[in-house]
Amino acid sequence: MVERNYEPPANWMEWEKRYFTSYDSLICEMMGFLQSQLMDTRPGLALGFIALISLSVPMATAMMFFHFSEMFKTALDGLPGLN
């Protein structure tokens, strides 16, 4: 069995040191709250949110790729001898 050091590192901020020991219980409590809220939600609304998130992440990625490619093309247009 692996032993864990329950003392936080000295370079951490005070709020990190306070929550270090109770991190697991806080996460479990938050996940329980989220699960209870989702169980009380209508299935259609929950599926709508899932669809919205699953469509918005690829769209945002595509938009970022488009903008980065435009910035790259603009940067290359400024270099001499590539036209």
UniProtKB/TrEMBL annotation:
What stretches pass through the bilayer?
45-66
Name recorded for this polypeptide: Uncharacterized protein
Q: Which keywords has UniProt assigned to this entry?
A: Membrane, Transmembrane, Transmembrane helix
Species the sequence originates in: Populus alba x Populus x berolinensis
